Every structure is written in C-alpha cells, then in structure tokens.
From TrEMBL:
It holds the Pfam family Cytochrom_B561. This is Cytochrome b561 and DOMON domain-containing protein. It is found in: Membrane. It comes from the Eukaryota. The keyword Ubl conjugation does not apply. May act as a catecholamine-responsive trans-membrane electron transporter. PANTHER family: CYTOCHROME B561 AND DOMON DOMAIN-CONTAINING PROTEIN. Residues 170-371 form the Cytochrome b561 domain. Its main location: membrane. The keyword Thylakoid does not apply. It is a multi-pass membrane protein.
Amino acid sequence: MASSSSPPSLAFLGLTLALVLLISPAHSLTCTTQTFTNNKLYSHCIDLPTLKSYLHWTYDSSNSTLSIAFVATPAKSDGWIAWAINPTSTGMKGAQTLLTYKKSDGSMNVKTFNISSYNDIVESKLAFDVWDTSAESSGGVFRLFAKLKVEEMESVNQVWQVGPSVSNGFPVKHDFNTDNLQAKGSLSLTGGTTTPTTTTGDSRLKKRNIHGILNAVSWGLLFPIGIIIARYLRTFQSADPAWFYLHIFCQVSGYAIGVAGWATGIKLGSESEGVVYSAHRKIGITLFSLATVQIFALFLRPKKEHKYRFYWNIYHHTLGYAILILSILNVFKGLDILNPAKHWRSTYIIVIIALGAIALLLEAITWAVVLKRRSTKSTKPYDGFNNGQG
C-alpha cells in the first residue's frame, strides 16, 4: 500500500522553500544574496568586517560617479546607520557622511554631515556632490542609497557606523565598543582588494585592556586588601608589626601600579579625540589626587603620643575609605566602557564579594577579641601600636 505522506525528498524541499520565503534577503549571510525593492543592481558588494554591515557599489569612471547601497541594522529599532568617505584620514574626523533614520511617521530620512571636528557635528553639505539619496527599511534592517561624485580616485577611505537613537533630528552618540571603533577601511572603487583599517584600532584596544587591568589590580584589589589588613590584623598581637608592613606594601604597590594605569588612561584620552567618558575620567583624576595625598601623608604621620595623632587618624581613615569606594565604583565604570566578556565582570564581582565576606568575618572576630579584653578589665584593647607604628 502506498504511503499517504509525502516522500521525504518532497517534504525536505517544501521545508527549504518555506525557510527561504521566511528569511528576508537583508538578513542573508552574505551581500551576494541581497536584493532591493527598487531592483537596483550593483557591480560589486562586500560583507563589511564589523557591525553586520554590507556595501554594494558601482563606479563609473567615465563620469566619476559612485553609486552605493549601504545595508546595516541600527543599534536599536529607532536608531540610525551611516556610511562615509573620508578624503583626508582613516577615522571619523573629516568624514563626509550619509546618515539615515526612520521618522515618527515611518518614512526614512537621509541627512548629510561634514564632520570637520568631533565637537562640532552639524548637518551640512559634503565636500563633493551627492544626489539621488534615499533609504528603505524592512525587518529592522535599513538600506541607504546614494550617488556621489568621486573624481580621479582608485580607492577611498570608508567609515560606517550604527547608532541607538535620534533626538530632534540629530543622531545620538554611538557606542565605542571594539566593532564600532574598527568600522573603517579602504575601499577599491574598481572592485579590487578592499581591506579593513584595523592596525590603529587593535593598538588602541590593547592599550585600553592594559589600562583596565592595571587599574583593576591596583585600585580594585590591592587598595581594598591593604585596608582590610590595616583594620583587622593589627588587633592581634602576633601580627605586629607584620600587619603594618603588609599594609604599606599593598598601598604603595597599588599606588605605583595605579599611576601606570592612570598615565595609560591619559595617553588614551589624548589619542582618542572626541571619545570622552566624563564620569570615569573625573573619578580617575579624583582617585589619583586622593591617593597621592594619602601616600605622601605617611611622611607627616605624628607619633602615637603626639596630640595631633588623633586628628591624623581621622583624616587617614576617612581618606582611605573614600578611595576604597571610588576605586570599586570606577572599576565597574571601566568594565562598562571596555565591555569585556561577561566572565571578567563576574570574576571581579566574586572577588569583591569574597573580600566583603572576609571583612565581615574579621569584623566579628576582632569585636569578640576586643570585648573579651574589656571583660578582663584591660585598660585598653590592643591597638596594634608597637615602637611608634600605628
């Protein structure tokens, strides 16, 4: 008896056709399978190396006309995408930019920006002629079309970008993740070799990682450990004077490494014009200043019998706890900026929780020791002072 079900080959074919119909061409894995509703055709296309973007283009050398179709997904549904040619450099400064976004009525708007500086981004005409600009969207993907007059050039520096939103017709700043910073390259107009410009981006990323590691180790680990040692170990007579030297070692080492991390951050800031992380930068400068005052105050520390020692202790402890809070806060600010793999953030959170648990345990133990000494009518709980070291 013949089976009432379809043969396996027909079932497989039907499933394949259904998937083809469901998948939008703009979401295809390569640019070669993408089509446009206006049926435009281009001589060349490339899968751009970052931000899941694609570029289609045709260059007519007889009249120096470059026709392009840039395809990308905005960072958010109400965001924007942009493609640019930079005739003077490889980055954003100097980029002649085409940008599109979806207006409130659902239609697409195309604007041009001549980015002469990072601090003065205004809508304006480009350095070369642009016409036939238009855009379309479907399935969350934007497609930007334009024709440009590109005279006597075999290749151009291209820059592309995606952003999260538009405010009053002006694009909101994009992210500064690795993919965003490396969204640039050299485009051969005749369809020859097209290469991404990643050397500078890779070097800057390496410096960012070094900056993050140095500061996480110094401000985020050594300083908290040094404070725990000073607060709790000095209660135990057997730990004297070792606790003092361990405390000094942690704080001085943390300061030295922190200075290196701070200097790396200053260098990064000078090399990244227009990229400003105000809160992280201000906290970092504050930390460096407070820690510098704290370290040099050691040379002004009065002996324990001096009448000003009490006030010096108040200042020293207050400044120390302020540095502790700001240090941990700024490490998390830095993690937000670097956006590393999740396990790095998780690891640091676990370390901080562990240090907090150790501090709570030692707090209970030291209070028990102090109360026990008081119960034996000790005139003063041992405070870790020995030979003038407090």
